[in-house]
Design brief:
- The protein is built from eight helices and five strands.
- A three-stranded antiparallel β-sheet has the order 2-4-5, with no helix packed on it. A two-stranded antiparallel ribbon has the order 1-3.
- The longest helix is centred in the N-terminal third of the chain and has 20 residues.
- The N and C termini lie far apart (about 95 Å).
């Protein structure tokens, strides 16, 4: 029989049951002192090198169904979420990043439930996302726009003209401006897949580069005239 701490196989449990039944019969038919002074459970425990509690537990399991289930596997329990959901979560997060849309854990749980009929607790999903190296961090914005040729040409003409005027003795007045959106949006946090940094086939749009606008709504523009000596008074 297995030693302490080891699981008992179904075949071994059947042997223990047979031994217990043997001692039950011997106690009824024999007058030997060993059978009259000790119970069949104690004799079975001595014969199999098991504890009496283990023998009683096996007999109780046998009396309930006459069939033994295989012992449970030792080690860590299986993950609560199937590994196949990893790819699904990556696709959802990457599609939001490419479309410059914020994705939160609450939104991801809702999409899995509504569109894929997958119910999962929020904290369980959070733990598995970190295990899959799907991280939660700051959004990085990048400029994806390219200037057209006429814009580059106009800038060069402006700089050439500005250099000529700077070398003259004229007073040059500049119109300077700055602006801020009414509903300004600063730094943002979102989920993104970390494997894009290792995969050469994935560009940075698959990562945390959402590049969403800084804000929406009315834009406040501050305009003023300025020279080398500072702001022109009375012109703001």
């Amino acid at each position: 029989m297995p030693g302490k701490g080891n699981s008992i196989a179904a075949v071994e449990k059947n042997i223990i049951v047979n031994i217990k039944h043997y001692f039950d019969k011997e106690k009824k038919s024999s007058n030997k002192k060993i059978y009259t002074s000790k119970s069949a459970v104690k004799l079975t425990a001595l014969a199999t090198n098991l504890s009496e509690i283990s023998v009683r537990r096996i007999m109780s399991e046998f009396n309930k169904g006459n069939d033994f289930s295989p012992p449970a596997r030792k080690g860590s329990s299986p993950y609560a979420i199937d590994e196949s959901i990893k790819t699904l979560c990556q696709d959802i997060i990457r599609s939001h990043n490419i479309n410059r849309e914020h994705i939160s854990l609450r939104l991801l749980v809702g999409i899995l439930n509504d569109k894929h009929n997958i119910e999962v607790a929020r904290e369980t999903l959070r733990a598995n996302l970190f295990r899959w190296k799907i991280l939660h961090g700051s959004v990085r914005r990048y400029t994806a726009l390219r200037e057209q040729d006429y814009v580059v040409s106009a800038r060069r003409d402006y700089l050439i003209k500005k250099r000529e005027l700077d070398n003259s003795n004229r007073t040059i007045v500049y119109l300077d401006e700055t602006f801020i959106n009414k509903n300004y949006s600063g730094s943002d946090l979102s989920w993104y897949c970390a494997d894009w940094e290792e995969e050469q086939n994935l560009d940075m749009s698959y990562g945390p580069y959402i590049n969403k606008p800084s804000g929406k709504g009315v834009r406040l523009i501050i305009l003023n005239a300025v020279t080398n000596n500072g702001w022109i008074k009375g012109r703001n």
